[in-house]
Inverse folding.
């Protein structure tokens, strides 16, 4: 095959084509524009929020994330409000007005791609296509849609529409490829000095750009990343390619490994984002066991652009193999120094401090790109490692512990009833939806609320979807995760020795301690973490040949049957049993055995 490629293809011209097309991809990201035609000018801020509902991006509607909003301060003299740089993946638009004191009269709204008009909203069609609005009065008359903002801000959202068909996307990129080939042909034919440009070096620039493009197309981020951040991402990938080349010392195989790594990492990131609404972070690499178990319960669909991305990665490798070998001797050590300097500079200065709330992480991931955001998170993760507090002393802690023990011993009441069996259940996704004065639904947990002879209270957890182990860690150890970096999982990172906990306390008090979780022992590193918590007995899914499941997870009925059996075996002893259920874990796709018993469709916000 390589002989065929070398005979039939002008290799130098093909390399120039790859480099020039890569430059087009780096510098040019197609976008839409949005024109609001006014009957009269206004003064205030116009905000266009753009989403792709196929990717669930409407979750950003209530947050001011730059990747999904375009702001423009309108002037009274403007007859047309022009907003550009709207990603071409947009299929849902929300038009908002902030601090506009006068009535707003709109004659039409145009959505365009360059000189081509893709959609025109007349006052009548706007009225028919409004699917939601807030904070404004809307009426139509005299070929005008009139909006009155009540208060500081108001918005209306138009129904979903594919503005730029996929065929148009294909036409745009085919045009780029054709133009790139023409330019490559002219360079190869007409420019003499071009023959002296090292083909290997051109490949080590073109390949990272192409794979960056394909990776971010897979994640859906590409059209949200501005030019400067595209440069940062490509610089990081070029360094990656160079480092891998220095390791393997063979350019073709180094390019293949790098290509596949970048593309596959992008594909995996796409799935992770779909499943839990945030990208892969450095600390997630310690939770691969849990991810592999949970991902089997999600629907993974192979998309055409993933296949194309991998094919392109392999084609670039084949072209690299066809490039004549550069026999120039390289002093590996001298070549390494500038690369390491650049790596450190980018690593320490690529991004600022991230606020690690999941929704914000996803927005940063989209605007900064995969490589830049991941590099920044690595930097932050290292810099945010827990530090010993000033004045911290183990001896002082031991003395304090001794004083507390003496105080407790002096206040012992021999008449107090001491429990002989303690069962602690951490019920996956269990919540009282009406805590905090809300009124989402009545009687979701009627039996639980009906228990009278009960000491009750509320446990507030610090995670929102994912990170079950942190609630477990806090509950069992009494240690807060507030002083860890955001998104850190102590079970994965800090359970390197025995940790004082409820389990160790009950062990010392003569109890038999048992942990039950009908998921795999690899989930959140529990097999190791539970040893450090000092459980005497541990029960995981591997203990059983088969379990009754609901939507792919062991059912609560199965769970509590195991719990009862565990208790019955040891009922003549004092027992502390900690049990984490699994039935209500995400995802929540429609399945035959998953019945919907509560409907929240009428709840807004």
């Amino acid at each position: 095959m390589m002989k065929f490629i070398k005979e039939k293809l002008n290799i130098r011209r093909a390399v120039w084509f790859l480099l020039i097309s890569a430059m087009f991809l780096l510098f040019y990201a197609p976008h839409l524009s949005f024109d609001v035609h006014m009957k009269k000018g206004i003064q205030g801020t116009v905000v266009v929020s753009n989403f792709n509902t196929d990717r669930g991006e409407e979750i950003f509607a209530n947050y001011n994330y730059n990747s999904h909003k375009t702001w423009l301060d309108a002037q009274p003299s403007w007859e047309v409000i022009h907003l550009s740089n709207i990603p071409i993946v947009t299929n849902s638009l929300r038009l908002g007005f902030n601090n506009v004191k006068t009535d707003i009269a709109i004659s039409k709204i145009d959505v365009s791609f360059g000189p081509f008009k893709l959609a025109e909203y007349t006052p009548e069609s706007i009225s028919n296509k409004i699917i939601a609005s807030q904070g404004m009065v809307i009426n139509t008359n005299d070929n005008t849609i009139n909006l009155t903002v009540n208060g500081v801000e108001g918005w209306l959202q138009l129904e979903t529409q594919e503005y730029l068909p996929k065929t148009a996307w294909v036409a745009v990129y085919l045009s780029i490829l054709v133009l790139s080939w023409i330019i490559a042909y002219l360079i190869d034919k007409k420019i003499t000095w071009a023959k002296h440009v090292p083909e290997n070096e051109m490949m080590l620039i073109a390949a990272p750009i192409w794979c960056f493009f394909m990776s971010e197309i897979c994640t859906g981020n590409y059209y949200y990343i501005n030019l400067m951040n595209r440069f940062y991402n490509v610089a990081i990938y070029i360094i990656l390619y160079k480092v891998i080349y220095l390791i393997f010392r063979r350019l073709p195989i180094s390019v293949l490994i790098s290509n596949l790594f970048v593309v596959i990492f992008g594909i995996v990131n796409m799935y992770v984002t779909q499943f839990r609404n945030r990208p892969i972070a450095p600390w997630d690499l310690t939770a691969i066991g849990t991810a592999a178990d949970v991902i089997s319960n999600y629907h993974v669909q192979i998309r055409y652009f993933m296949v194309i991305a991998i094919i392109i990665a392999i084609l670039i490798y084949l072209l690299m193999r066809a490039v004549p070998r550069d026999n120039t001797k390289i002093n590996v050590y001298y070549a390494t120094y500038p690369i390491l300097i650049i790596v450190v500079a980018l690593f320490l200065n690529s991004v600022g401090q991230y606020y690690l709330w999941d929704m914000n992480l996803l927005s940063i991931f989209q605007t900064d790109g995969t490589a830049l955001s991941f590099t920044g998170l690595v930097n932050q993760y290292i810099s945010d490692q827990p530090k010993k507090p000033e004045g911290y002393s183990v001896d002082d802690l031991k003395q304090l512990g001794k004083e507390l023990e003496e105080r407790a011993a002096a206040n012992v009441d021999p008449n107090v009833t001491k429990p002989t069996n303690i069962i602690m259940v951490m019920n996956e996704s269990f919540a009282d939806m009406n805590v905090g004065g809300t009124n989402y639904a009545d009687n979701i947990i009627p039996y639980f609320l009906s228990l009278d002879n009960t000491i009750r209270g509320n446990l507030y957890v610090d995670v929102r979807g994912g990170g079950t182990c942190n609630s477990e860690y806090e509950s069992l150890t009494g240690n807060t995760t507030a002083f860890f970096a955001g998104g850190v999982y102590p079970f994965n990172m800090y359970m390197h020795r025995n940790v004082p906990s409820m389990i160790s306390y009950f062990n010392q008090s003569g109890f038999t301690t048992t942990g039950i979780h009908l998921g795999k022992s690899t989930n959140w590193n529990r097999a190791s973490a539970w040893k450090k918590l000092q459980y005497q007995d541990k029960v995981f899914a591997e203990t059983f040949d088969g379990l009754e499941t609901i939507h792919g997870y062991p059912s609560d009925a199965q769970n509590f049957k195991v719990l009862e059996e565990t208790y019955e075996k040891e009922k003549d002893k004092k027992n502390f049993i900690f049990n984490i259920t699994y039935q209500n874990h995400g995802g929540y796709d429609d399945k035959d055995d998953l019945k919907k018993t509560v409907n929240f469709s009428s709840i807004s916000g």
Q: What stands out?
A: The chain has a mean pLDDT of 81. Residues 419-580 form a domain with the Alkaline Phosphatase, subunit A fold (CATH 3.40.720.10). Residues 251-276 form the longest helix (26 residues). The first strand starts at residue 31 and ends at 38.
